[in-house]
Design goal:
This protein has 257 residues and is an alpha+beta fold. The chain is 31% helix and 12% strand. It is globular.
């Protein structure tokens, strides 16, 4: 298989399993036209975008919209339809949780977005130029470790390896900065790895426990967890697929990463 970052992901993974649908009957729902348009878009993705299945969630309390919808397949081999009750990997939505914890700490006065990275990790390159805000809005210029060829090769050979944050940052800092901190924007997973480490240093707790105690428990998100090891998923769950460049066959990678 080619590297993880070279794949086109074909299952749109949503945190929609956290909610239940409140869609009204068409005769009484004033947002029916809007709902119909959203359904059309979701179905169109399945028909035209080489995506096996999708779960879509749109919530707008001001407009009274609470719409949850599944289309396509959750299991290609067995032709099982996508299900809104399935548990999914939420991938980079973890960044949202990390950012939420960080901003809570800002509100509590325990950290400032203007703080320099050097206040926490002075050993990191250019840490006296990088602020917490730059890490949060992807303007630090730090190289994205998932763009590193050797990391991708290792992922192919040993997909279940558990990486320590320090190992990932060693890879990131082995590359030149993409730009001078604060002068441009570029998506980099390395930023959020560092934010997680900052949160742990400020609180004295693991990022996992901070997410659980600050977000998951207060919101009663019983089917959500920040898993730090293993590749399994609790039931029920769909399958995860990728489509390699130049090939038309889906590869099942549900437990590969």
């Amino acid at each position: 298989m080619k590297a993880f970052t070279k794949y086109t992901f074909l299952v749109v993974l949503s945190a929609a399993f956290l909610f239940t649908s409140c869609e009204k009957d068409g005769a009484t729902n004033p947002n029916q036209d809007f709902v119909s348009q959203m359904k059309f878009v979701a179905d169109s993705v399945i028909q035209h975008a080489n995506v096996p299945g999708v779960v879509a969630l749109v919530v707008d309390h001001k407009k009274g919209v609470d719409w949850l919808y599944a289309a396509g397949l959750s299991d290609i081999s067995n032709q099982i339809p996508m299900n809104t009750n399935h548990i999914f990997r939420i991938g980079s939505n973890t960044k949202t949780m990390t950012g939420t914890v960080l901003l809570q700490l800002v509100d509590e006065g325990k950290i400032s977005l203007n703080d320099k990275l050097s206040a926490f990790f002075p050993e990191f390159p250019r840490s006296d130029e990088i602020t917490i805000a730059m890490l949060s809005n992807m303007t630090s210029g730090i190289f994205n470790y998932t763009d590193d060829e050797s990391w991708n090769n290792e992922l192919d050979q040993n997909p279940t390896r558990v990486w320590k944050p320090e190992e990932l940052l060693d890879i990131a800092f082995s590359h030149n900065f993409n730009f001078t901190p604060g002068t441009d924007w570029r998506y980099s997973n390395s930023n959020t790895i560092i934010l997680g480490m900052v949160i742990e240093k400020v609180t004295g707790n693991s990022l996992q426990s901070e997410v659980e105690n600050r977000i998951l428990k207060p919101l009663n998100l019983l089917n959500t967890a920040l898993q730090t090891s293993g590749t399994g998923l609790p039931a029920p769950h769909g399958r995860g697929y990728v489509l390699d460049d130049g090939e038309s066959k889906f590869a099942d990678v549900t437990t590969n990463f």
